[in-house]
Amino acid sequence: MEEIFIKPLKKYGSLWIYKNEILSDITHLTPGSLLRVYESRSNKIIGTGYINPKSTISIRLLSFKKENIDAEFFHQKFQQAIKYREEFLGLKHSYRMIYSESDGLPGLIVDKYNNCLVIQILTAGMETFKDLIIELVDKITNPEIIVLKNDSSSRLKEGLVTEKKIVKGELSELPVIYEDDVKFLVNPVHGQKTGFFLDQRENRLFLKQFITAGEGLDLFCYIGSWSIHLAKKGASVTGIDSSEHAINSARDNAKINNLNERCKFIKADVFSYLKWEIKKNKRYDFMVVDPPAFVKSKNQKDDAIEGYLTLNSLALKLLKKDGILTTSSCSQHISDFEFSEIIKEALSRNKRTGKVLYKGIQSKDHPILLTMPETAYLKCLIVKLFD
Length: 387
Prior knowledge:
By secondary structure, the chain is of the alpha/beta class. It has three domains: 2-63, Roll (Archaeosine Trna-guanine Transglycosylase, Chain: A, domain 4), CATH 2.30.130.10; 71-168, 2-Layer Sandwich (Transcription Regulator spoIIAA), CATH 3.30.750; 197-385, 3-Layer(aba) Sandwich (Rossmann fold). 28% of the residues lie in helices and 29% in strands. The longest helix has 18 residues, at 71-88.
């Protein structure tokens, strides 16, 4: 196994080593190959990981010691991750089973949707273990269906092809999952990400305590997860999304929950729809604002901040004086403080104020590694207006 020397580390606990931190020549190394990493001055072992010389994050560590990366290593990691979700969190049927760096397996995501597992491999290093990963998760969990959902754009940056295929079983019917008393159909092949946004679970369940009636909008509704929870509690909800596939899926989910009369889904650009509703002088009791990430890199940050500010300002114009705004950001480059400041500014622009009922993060099956702030990405604020 190749040995690589790096500059003395400024902090301990990150699984990422950047190209400018490496002292050894790495140009000859094959993307995905395993190596040992040492600190240059002390020759102290930093860990065992894999490399991609083409990537800015050139090394991703799998262990902080000298360790064999083999079937036994992966087996133990998988068992630890499942034990945390099922024994500690009490999740059984649907959850994120592997969350990349937070489970010590950078570049790997595995989501469980009842009897279906969806695997996403994001890096060249993890790609080398693809067959082993499929074999082990099959052996440990014995699902009826395994889907390989390798369509992320990050694979292209790693020099990998994109692909979507079923590697076990048949998807003759879509998996059905339950969240509290609501059920959802999940499409692991054609849906966004792995088919569902599990990371908002706890935030959705918290919000439904406050919404038991009234009329509201669910912006960027995707397959209707927020809408259907709120409709189940007695509200009337209109979901807006620009994807026809998402809108059709949302309607199917409303149907299986017998909520067609309380849920309406419209294919439209969210910004245009909000402006149209403002022109009509429409007012709502509540608003859910859950957009996709507006920023993928630091150099897009200013534009993203303006995007969040514009979006939330428009939403606030449509809320009644005692309305409830639930707003989120899944952009990792926008900090918790920055997101709070964005919402404060949106309130200020509308000459409104409000109380924070709740401040949420990603669900606990997406654990945050304290030594890697990059693993924390989701911010959710529930604000009660009182002007």
